[in-house]
């Protein structure tokens, strides 16, 4: 959890509105980055729970798969900035892989992240942006996996689904 001040109000007597941003970045344009389903599946599940009606949400914005580009994610995070009041609640869920930059900064891998530059969405800047919201409650949930673990899962998946000796031999290549 990046930032948390959470006691999301329950009941019809709430004064503010509830806003949610749900992001699942698992499809990547860069062939060096494996596509993974868990961030997308997780984000879709969270979105469906939020829309199920157990708590009344005024707006739920969801970006998954190829739509979770750096510019779209940052726009989604800043979209509510002018509308949120001190009585409102904001929930942000982000799932995906991360890269560590040359300067040890951590980046969310967006759909359009380039491994050559080793840059994506800077998580420390994201934290600052979310901390600037005037909402009564801001809850941020992150389901992030380092790139190396994402790559290992992709290789394991290939091994499990390989149907020929030739395909299994290809797994030895980086």
Structure commentary:
This protein is α/β, with parallel strands linked by helices and 174 residues long. Helices cover 31% and strands 25% of the residues. The protein is built from five helices and seven strands, in the order E-E-H-E-H-E-E-E-H-E-H-H. Strands 1, 2, 3, 4, 5, 6 and 7 form a seven-stranded mixed β-sheet that branches. The longest helix has 15 residues, at 147-161. The chain is globular and about 45 Å long. The model is unreliable at 1-12 (pLDDT under 50).
Defining traits:
7 strands; 174 residues; 31% helix; 7-stranded mixed β-sheet; alpha/beta; 5 helices
Regarding quaternary structure, what we see is single chain
- In what range is the share of β-strand residues? 15-25%
Largest sheet: 7 strands, mixed
The gyration radius over C-alpha positions equals: 18 Å
In short:
With 174 residues, this protein is an alpha/beta fold.
Layout of helices and strands:
Layout: E1 4-5, E2 18-25, H1 38-51, E3 59-64, H2 70-79, E4 89-100, E5 106-108, E6 121-122, H3 123-131, E7 137-146, H4 147-161, H5 165-170
Parallel strand pairs: 2-3, 2-4, 4-7
Antiparallel strand pairs: 1-7, 4-5, 5-6
């Amino acid at each position: 959890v990046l930032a948390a001040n959470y006691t999301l109000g329950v009941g019809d007597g709430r004064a503010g509105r509830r806003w949610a941003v749900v992001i699942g970045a698992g499809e990547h344009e860069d062939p060096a980055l494996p596509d993974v389903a868990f961030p997308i599946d997780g984000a879709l599940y969270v979105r469906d729970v939020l829309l199920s009606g157990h708590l009344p949400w005024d707006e739920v914005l969801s970006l998954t798969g190829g739509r979770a580009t750096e510019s779209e994610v940052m726009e989604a995070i800043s979209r509510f900035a002018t509308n949120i009041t001190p009585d409102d609640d904001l929930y942000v869920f982000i799932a995906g892989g991360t890269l560590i930059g040359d300067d040890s900064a951590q980046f969310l891998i967006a759909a359009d992240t380039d491994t050559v530059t080793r840059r994506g969405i800077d998580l420390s800047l994201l934290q600052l942006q979310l901390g600037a919201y005037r909402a009564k409650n801001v809850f941020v949930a992150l389901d992030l996996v380092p790139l190396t673990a994402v790559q290992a899962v992709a290789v394991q998946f290939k091994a499990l689904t390989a149907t020929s000796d030739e395909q299994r031999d290809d797994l030895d290549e980086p």
